[in-house]
Amino acid sequence: MSADRGFSFTQDQLRALAQDCLRFAREGGASAAEIDVSEGWGHSVSVRHGEIDTLEYNRDKGLSVSVYLGTQRGHANTSDFSAQAMRDTVKAALSIARFTAEDPCAGLPEAELLATEARELDLFHPWETDVEASLELAKRCEAAGFAVSGQITNSEGASVSTQQSQFVSANSLGFCEGFATTRHSLGVSLIAGQGDGMQRDDWWVSSRDAARLPPVEEVGDYAARRALSRLNARRLPTQEAPVIFEAPQVAGLLGHFVGAASGGALYRRASFLLGRMGEQVFSDQVTLLEDPFVPGGFASSWFDDEGVRTARRNVVEKGQLKGWFLGSYSARKLGLQTTGNAGGCHNLILQPGDDNLNGLIRRMGRGLLVTELLGHGINMVTGDYSRGAAGYWVENGVIAYPVQEITIAGNLLQMFKDIVACGNDMLIRGSKQCGSVLIGSMTIAGE
């Protein structure tokens, strides 16, 4: 990677900085050390009613140091890459380690688990755009929304962002690797109607490669139509009914699963999945694939934050729980081996079924389609789930009218086991790729 893409450093220079820090740590008496060095830059803009609302430039760099004195760990960081600053940062980490209690689970991963084979994952696609061009795209996106109908009466803004970064991770076991990535996004939030009858909705898209983003006019048009479709929303009577979670909301459900299946929650005994390895925790309609090697994926990487190699695997297979998300520390706390998930999951993909969203609606017949969730009423220890919601009531397999000011409630374990079907309307939201899902029954609290 050369500096002509706007970076201040080459990959070789970042590697040299990391190796210098490792040497300083070794000279300071550390028994082991790990270094992360990175830089990034980009800009984000937003417009509202065709006028500039925000304009942000960013250019950042950072270096973090973790050192070990046996099983005592210290950590420090700096944004100064000078030799003296790096020495001082290493000294600070060593000083912290000396006053830290011993922890037999602390330390680097086992050397044999480190990644050794690099992969090209298509993660770096600089966007040749400047602030003026980005502002023009945002204005076009918002204008396309206003053009849909005179009932689009206001805007919370349209935004465009482009970011690129690179990093190197290294440790005293000999691992030293890194790569560059890009992330580009655009979106808009629009308001339909007047007075107490106003409704808002939004839409946004993102990609590693700006060439794969849809036309900005399509994004603005879709956001406007979503807002318009929510006008004249009603409340529902309290009842039990089937519920469809639209794909963006399913990404949140998968996030709850990942949190419960992660090492920190497990060793703290703060997970509703505790002790359920090998059990049926979803319906047999659900298979969850973790694939770190998706080209252009937002969570693609051939190594985790500790340098451990990643692997493609089914975390859930036909409803049965097959794997946790563990880094070295949490694995040792649990008496297990790291799964290469220090830093999080890598592209969790809900395998699609046969129906698109309309097909799921027809299949449900009568029930609730949830397109927005509010609040955070989730107990990760018990799995109890209660959140404000909005969306649409379905009768005879078609949307009948929009609904608002309701609450949906259940238990995540029961909800997971009651998934009747998974949709093929696949959507990417960060590290999650999923379609909509139909759940057999939930409590809907309304009037």
Shape: globular
Total number of β-strand segments? 18
Helix content: 10-25%
Radius of gyration: 24 Å
User: What is the straight-line distance between the termini?
Assistant: 60 Å
Describe this structure in words.
The protein has nine helices and 18 strands. By secondary structure, the chain is an alpha+beta fold. The protein has a six-stranded antiparallel sheet with strand order 3-2-1-4-5-6. The protein has a six-stranded mixed sheet with strand order 10-9-8-11-17-16, covered by helices on one side. A five-stranded mixed beta barrel has the order 7-12-13-14-18.
Layout of secondary structure:
Elements: H1 11-27, E1 32-48, E2 51-69, E3 72-78, H2 83-98, H3 131-146, E4 152-171, E5 176-192, E6 199-207, H4 216-228, E7 239-245, H5 247-260, H6 263-267, E8 288-290, E9 313-317, E10 320-321, H7 328-334, E11 348-350, H8 357-364, E12 367-378, E13 384-395, E14 398-411, H9 412-417, E15 419-422, E16 427-429, E17 432-434, E18 437-445
Parallel strand pairs: 7-12, 11-17
Antiparallel strand pairs: 1-2, 1-4, 2-3, 4-5, 5-6, 7-18, 8-9, 8-11, 9-10, 12-13, 13-14, 14-18, 15-18, 16-17
Helix pairs in contact: 1-2, 3-4
In short:
The protein has helices spanning 11-27, 83-98, 131-146, 216-228, 247-260, 263-267, 328-334, 357-364, 412-417, and strands at residues 32-48, 51-69, 72-78, 152-171, 176-192, 199-207, 239-245, 288-290, 313-317, 320-321, 348-350, 367-378, 384-395, 398-411, 419-422, 427-429, 432-434, 437-445.
